[in-house]
Design goal:
Oligomer: heterodimer
Strand order of the largest sheet of chain B: 1-2-3
CATH architecture of the largest domain in chain A: Orthogonal Bundle
Order of helices and strands of chain B: HHHHHEEE
Largest sheet of chain B: 3 strands, antiparallel
Mean pLDDT of chain B: 72
Number of strands of chain B: 3
Structural class of chain A: mainly alpha
CATH superfamily of the largest domain in chain A: Winged helix-like DNA-binding domain superfamily/Winged helix DNA-binding domain
Order of helices and strands of chain A: HHHHHHHHHH
Strand content of chain A: under 5%
Largest sheet of chain A: none
Number of helices of chain A: 10
Largest interface: A-B, 72 and 57 residues
Structural class of chain B: mainly alpha
Mean pLDDT of chain A: 86
Distance between the termini of chain B: 33 Å
Helix content of chain B: 40-55%
Chain lengths: 199, 164
């Protein structure tokens, strides 16, 4: 059956067909969700090539595990969780291979975010969309992966603290402090990038 | 100056993570605290700036090429296609069978040991339905029988790893 025979909202029918082994239906599901899955991987690993590889791996795993998918969440959410877990695993392996980032050391040394002056003016006001994206991307890149991941899971995936803690294997308190630090640092970085842009 | 705990509570209030009553109390306090208001403004601004950041991100490969790579991998390792609920039923069956088996084995061990007057000093515990412990102090042996939720039930499967 061609994927085009399914309506745009009919993921469950495609999922059922793919569970029975219909690869055309699965191809249609990939087509519908590939950009979102890739986007999530890119936000987390911040490297296009790695994000493509990880999203591809997620799709292969998705196919392998599809018989166990019971539809308790939407297919898109289920696939996003798979790619998030793959990215976390990837980032953890990377971390083992390199020194702790300055950000993580700062966090452990305690409370840098408490001393940061509050940013009162939106430093991104009036920016073009592409420029805004570039600045956010630059700022995200300066966060440690733990801080970035908490921010991505909360802001983009709309996960609650409890769910982030479960996904990352840490306490809710750690999630709260990482999120607070990440937000405050983002604000400071964006304000700093604005000043640089004015020079 | 706001203490750190209050700053985190302020954030939790913004994220809708406080209970209704606590949130109301906090908002009342917020009305008379310019420092807290400024911080809340900054946290809100960061959230607004990030909203929609991922929108419009496109996979930098043609759909055909991307799918061809996935298809190649899928065909290399074909999965067994069956009833989608089979894995879950098996998991549920295993979840009950394993603790029940452990309990039966434990009770059998206790009975056998109880019959033997010269038998080893032993201790058994069953703290929850998923773990059974058997200590044989004479033989300096401890056996622990654990049953975990079947991995088939976890959406992430083996990659559902943790960070730290």
């Amino acid at each position: 059956m061609s994927g085009k025979e399914y309506g745009p909202e009919n993921d469950p029918a495609l999922v059922r067909a793919a569970q029975r082994g219909d690869m055309v239906a699965f191809e249609e599901l990939v087509g519908r969700h590939r950009d979102k899955i890739y986007g999530r991987a890119l936000s987390m690993v911040r490297n296009e090539e790695e994000a493509v590889d990880l999203s591809q791996e997620a799709w292969v795993k998705g196919w392998q595990r599809l018989p166990q998918f019971l539809g308790e969440s939407s297919f898109g959410t289920w696939m996003t969780r798979i790619v998030i877990n793959l990215c976390l695993d990837h980032l953890r392996k990377q971390k083992r291979q390199r020194m702790e980032s300055i950000e993580a050391i700062n966090e452990e040394s305690g409370g840098v975010e408490r001393q940061m002056p509050v940013v009162t003016v939106n430093p991104t006001a009036g920016l073009e969309r592409s420029e805004l994206r570039q600045r956010i991307n630059q700022a995200l890149g300066q966060l440690s992966y733990e801080h970035r991941t908490v921010l991505v899971l909360h802001e983009f995936e709309q996960m609650e603290y409890k769910e982030i803690a479960r996904t990352m294997g840490c306490s809710i308190g750690t999630v709260m402090s990482r999120l607070f630090y990440a937000r405050r640092k983002m604000a400071a970085l964006l304000a700093g990038l604005k000043k640089e842009g004015l020079r | 100056m706001m203490d750190y705990e209050s700053q985190l509570r302020l954030q939790a209030c913004l994220d809708g993570e406080l209970a209704a009553q606590e949130a109301a109390q906090f908002e009342e306090r917020l009305a008379n605290d310019p420092e807290a208001q400024a911080l809340l403004g900054e946290l809100r601004m960061t959230r607004t700036v990030l909203a929609g950041f991922e929108a419009g991100v496109k996979l930098p490969e043609s759909p055909e090429f991307f799918w061809s790579k996935i298809r190649r991998e899928i065909e290399r390792e074909p999965r067994s296609v069956g009833d989608p609920r089979r894995g879950s039923l098996f998991a549920a069956w295993r979840r009950w069978l394993v603790p029940a088996g452990a309990m039966a084995a434990g009770m059998a061990a206790v009975l056998l040991i109880g019959r033997s007057e010269q038998g080893p000093e032993t201790q058994t515990s069953l703290t929850d339905s998923g773990a059974f412990t058997y200590h044989d102090f004479a033989a300096r042996t401890t056996l622990v029988w654990l049953s975990y939720p079947a991995e088939e039930e976890l959406g992430g499967g083996e990659e559902a790893d943790t960070l730290d």
